[in-house]
Amino acid sequence: MRRLIVAICLLVFPLYPELYAKKIIHLRHEYKVVKDDWQQSERMPVSALFVTYENSTIFIEAEKSLGLFQISVIDKEGNVAFFTVNSLGKDVFSFSIKDIPKGEYCIELLSDIDYYYGYFEIAQ
């Protein structure tokens, strides 16, 4: 029975990849400039952020509550396609990008000290 289920999955999932896979946006982390260089060099990221997208929705997850972040989606020319300020916590924060045209984009997540960014492409 298990082999039958595996065989069906192997046959069906390649036909419909959107059923089982979110695309991961790999984030890089930097710190905003802090007046005291010593504090900046000792500081570690508060928590990991995980950003994925599927169809026309971006999902942002955090290991723990992080407070307010500015969230921006910016195209290659520097135009802001999406912007919001939201508190990121254990709940998944999601937003739609269905009105954003095809192209390459950068997502930026900015708090008072932390700066995360990652690149993705909308190909639909």
Task: Describe what you observe in this structure.
By secondary structure, the chain is mainly beta. 14% of the residues lie in helices and 47% in strands. It has two helices and nine strands; from the N terminus they run αββαβββββββ. The strands form two sheets. The protein has a five-stranded antiparallel β-sheet with strand order 2-9-8-5-6, with no helix packed on it. It has a four-stranded antiparallel β-sheet with strand order 1-3-4-7, with no helix packed on it. A hairpin with a 3-residue loop joins β8 and β9. The radius of gyration is 18 Å and the shape is globular. The N and C termini lie far apart (37 Å). About 13% of the residues have low confidence.
How would you briefly describe this protein structure?
The chain is mainly β and 124 residues long. It is 14% helix and 47% strand.
Please render the helix and strand layout as text.
Elements: H1 2-12, E1 23-25, E2 28-31, H2 37-42, E3 49-54, E4 57-62, E5 67-75, E6 80-88, E7 93-96, E8 103-110, E9 114-122
List the keywords:
mainly beta, 124 residues, 9 strands, 14% helix, 4-stranded antiparallel sheet, 5-stranded antiparallel sheet, 2 helices
Strand order, largest beta sheet: 2-9-8-5-6
In angstroms, what is the radius of gyration?
A: 18 Å
Share in β-strands: over 45%
User: What is the number of helices?
Assistant: 2
Tell me, what's the shape? globular
Alpha-beta classification: mainly beta
Helix and strand pattern: HEEHEEEEEEE
Q: How widely separated are the two ends?
A: 37 Å
**Average pLDDT figure:** 76
Number of strands: 9
Largest sheet: 5 strands, antiparallel
Weakly predicted, low-confidence segments: 10-20, 40-44
**Fraction of helical residues:** 10-25%
